[in-house]
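Continuing the batch. This is chain 6 of the set; chains 1 through 5 are on the previous pages. Same settings as before, nothing changed between runs. Recording input and output for traceability.
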Amino acid sequence: MSSDRTYHHGDLRRALLAAALDVIRTEGPAALSLRDLARRAGVSHAAPAHHFKDRTGLLTAIAAEGYGLFADALADAPDLRERGVRYVRFATEHPAHFQVMFQPDLHRADDPDLLAAKERATAELRAGVTELPAAGRGDDARLAGVAAWSLAHGFATLLLSGNLSGAVGDRDPEEVFGALAYLLFDPNSPADE
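Output for chain 6:
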């Protein structure tokens, strides 16, 4: 009977993920419960466990999906600045994924799907730093990567939490971030480019 219910529901896994992302976006990850998601999807309270085992499994699936989307968003960016802009864009377009991805205590760090997606995203981020001229990355490419990541992640986090509304005003946050990236990585370039 459970297979009939899944069949008639359509893609229950996707419906549960969508409902979970909605809860996280509006109420945060702490508000997430499998029982509530089952109620929202109109299935038995045990049905979500068939797809995710438990709440941590669901959050792990969200993180893995998020890192995959993130890697796709960063792919083929022409330079580090554009990777940063895409980082900020990803955070604003996928705020629920973004919240879960960067809270390792919410998911299983050893999950193979999560590890693969995270590695793809990390490779895309690193590619931007390795493309920097030596003057832009200094002696330590790893520290330059941390600096770039800190700038993009900090900006995105502050933006999502509403802490940049005064500083950004009605300007496009992606353009503001691009100007900040120039200030950090190419102080001789005009910030308005």
